[in-house]
Structures are given as C-alpha cells and as structure tokens.
Amino acid sequence: MSQDKEKITYSEKTERLRVIAQFIKNVTPMIWTIVILVVIIPLLGNFIISKSLTQTAATTVVVSPPHDFSKVDADVKSAIDTARTTAETFASQELDKWEAEVIARVDNNFLDWYFDYFNQKKMEFTVPFSFLKSAVLNRFDMNAASQAVSEKLTEDFQREFANRVLLPKNAQMRFQLITQDTANLYIAEVSKNVKVVQNKYNIPQAQWDRYLNDIATTISDKGNVSNLSLKVLVGGSGYLIAKPLILGMAAKVGSKVSAKVASKAAAKMATKTGGTVASQLGVGLIDPIVGVGIIIWDLWDYDRTVKVERPILREHLVAYLKDVKKSLLTNPESGIMAAIYQLESGILRSLS
C-alpha cells in the first residue's frame, strides 16, 4: 500500500514537471515577443533618436564662413556691366537691321526720286517763281529771297526723305519696341548674372536677400522719384516696377539726335525746316531725324549731276544715317540705352 502511494506521488510530480516544461515551452515565444517589443525595439529607437539629435545639434552649430563682400561687390559690378554690354549689343544689332533697311530705301527709292529727270526739271522750273515771290514778300531783299528758296527746297527734300526712307511713324514705334525688348533683356541678364555671384560664394538666401535689399537705384516717373532695390529688380517683377521709366525713355527716343550735315548753314536750315516737316507728318518726337540738310545744289547738266553727284549724296546720307543710329543707341537723354544707363548708374553708386 505504501509503495503504491509513493508511485502515485512520483507520477504526479513527473506529470507536473512535464506540464510546467510544456507551459514554459509554450509561453517562451510570447515572452521573447514581449521582450523585443518592450525592450529591444525601444532601445533601438532611443539609439536612433540620440544619433539624430546629435547630428542636428552638429548641423545647428555650423556657421557659414564669413564672406568677403568687397569681392562680392566687385563681382556684382562685373555682372551688371556684362548685362549692360549684352543689352547694348542686342540693341545695336536691332538698329543695324533698321539701318540696312533705310539705306536700301535710299538706294531703291529716294535717290531714284531725287535724281529723276522730271523731278530735277520741276525743281529748276519752280525755283525762279519761288524766288520772285519771296523777293516781293521781302521787299526785294535778295538774301532773304535766296534763304526762302533754300528753305523751301530743303523742306521738300526732307519731306520726301522722311516719307520714302525713314517712315517716321513706323520708326518711332520700332524704336520703342527695341527699347522695351532691350530693357527686358538687361533685367533678365542682371538677374542671371547676379545669381551666379551668389552661387559662387555659396551665400545663404536670407543673407543674400538682405545684401540685395541694401543695393538700390533711383527711378523717376513724371517727377515722382522712387527707389528700386536690386532684390526687386532681379526678383521677376523688376520690369513692371521700372516700366514707367522705360516707357518714358522710349517715348523720347530720337528726340535729340545729333546728326552731321554738309555745313553749318545746311545744319541750321535742316534744324529749322525739320521741325516744320515733322509737325506736318505728325512725328514731332523724331523731328531731328527728319532734319537732314540738302547736300548738293548744282542742278544744271542732268547727266553730270547723276554720274558725279549721286554717289556723293549717297555717301553723305549713309554717313548721316550711321550718325543717327549711334545717337539712337547711346544718347544719354533720349537713346534706347538711356533707361538702362540710369538704372545701372544708380546700382553702381550703391555699390561704391
């Protein structure tokens, strides 16, 4: 009986151990799962967080190296100068096209009209009557009569030259378009070139914006003066802000052309009659372009006039048009580049 009890107790213990072992075996994966989720993964996350904070802190304390802004100023000046050169080259090329067109009209239209046999005879026939009429009106003052005849011939010459060669109304519109296109190009080139300077010195955007804000140019619109910062000029809306200045200058293009003519007497006469012709044509803004003087006066011997004087007249007219083109481009008050010169000079003063 005692032995049976011992066997039962042993069997029970063995069974209990087996159950406990089986229980441990069953719950082991769950325990490891809990350890991984509660201990190992949080430890890994904590490690990653600490590394990230360390890197962030290191990045935060990095200070951009100081910039030598004297070098930056020099490069910005160079960038602006390059932009002006690019714009001036563009404007010059556009005026070259205009010049080629007007010289072609000189050859194919104006000279043919001027040296036409019947036109020459018409001038010769009408001159005595004009002279007599002027002499009577001026109480037979022969000098005054000669002056009046010269002015009438010059006026007729200028009117035909304007209508056949210059096409003044079309020319004025074309000059204005060239002015606007040139200004647009200049502002785009300034923006592009200045951005290169920022990249060259690796200047942070906030610091660069402050730098550009400190550089300003002055623009004037009908007496109203305002400042235009370089930041605004290169920021995409620069043309809109500078538009009043640009359009104001464009409207004046050609108003103060300095043109060479054959002599001082011809120059005075051309100035006097040029304004009259321009007002008749409704193109007062470019009256000095119309005001070209007559180069030749010898109307006798038609054949000799055509063979000898036509090349001379053409030479003088071509030289005159080249002088006009130069003034149209660079006249500081009324040239195509005038608005750009004003913008550029203000910026350079801020940098000096």
Short description:
This protein is mainly alpha-helical. 79% of the residues lie in helices and 3% in strands.
Model description:
The protein is mainly alpha-helical and 352 residues long. It folds into two domains: 1-58; 69-351. Helices cover 79% and strands 3% of the residues. The chain contains twelve helices and two strands, in the order ααααααββαααααα. The chain has helices spanning 2-60, 69-114, 117-137, 142-166, 168-201, 205-213, 230-233, 238-252, 264-281, 287-290, 302-330, 338-351; strands at residues 216-221, 224-229. A two-stranded antiparallel ribbon has the order 1-2. β1 and β2 (224-229) form a beta hairpin. It is rod-shaped and about 165 Å long. Mean pLDDT is 77; it is low at 56-65.
- Count of runs of 4 or more consecutive helical residues: 12
Number of domains: 2
Number of strands: 2
What is the percent of helical residues? over 70%
Shape: rod-shaped
Order of helices and strands: HHHHHHEEHHHHHH
Class by alpha and beta content: mainly alpha
- Please state how the strands of the largest beta sheet are arranged side by side: 1-2
On the 0 to 100 scale, the average pLDDT is 77
List the helices and strands and how they pair.
Layout (H helix, E strand, L loop, with lengths): L1 H59 L8 H46 L2 H21 L4 H25 L1 H34 L3 H9 L2 E6 L2 E6 H4 L4 H15 L11 H18 L5 H4 L11 H29 L7 H14 L1
Helix pairs in contact: 2-4, 2-5, 2-11, 2-12, 3-4, 4-9, 5-8
What tags apply to this protein structure?
single chain, mainly alpha, 2 domains, two-stranded antiparallel sheet, 12 helices
